[in-house]
Amino acid sequence: MFLKARNEMRAALSNLLKDDGILVIPTAPPPPKLRSKGRQLEDFLSSAFSLSSISGMSGCCEVTVPLGKYDGCPVSVSLVARCGADRFLLYLICILLFKSKLRLLQAHSPYLRLITK
Predict the structure, then answer these.
(1) Cβ of 84: how many Cβ atoms within 10 Å?
(2) What is the pTM of this model?
């Protein structure tokens, strides 16, 4: 049964993402309120397990990118690519990191701003 579910999920995501598609999802749902019980806690756990099982169930590759904090809680997104697209996903992450570092350097260095335009 697991293999059938995995194969169906892999096929659906491969069909959706093709060769160069990326699924961007939150890494985790918003946290429940302090001292949550019952239904609220169940909903949170269900959402958390659903989000975290996409790549594991389908065999797709996933990279988590931390974005910072909101209301004292860490915030991140996950980028998911089709099964077998590991190099493509890592290449994309390298480009995104390079561009964000370059923007940060440009903001603090007038000389770098001139030579990269």
Answers:
(1) 13
(2) 0.79
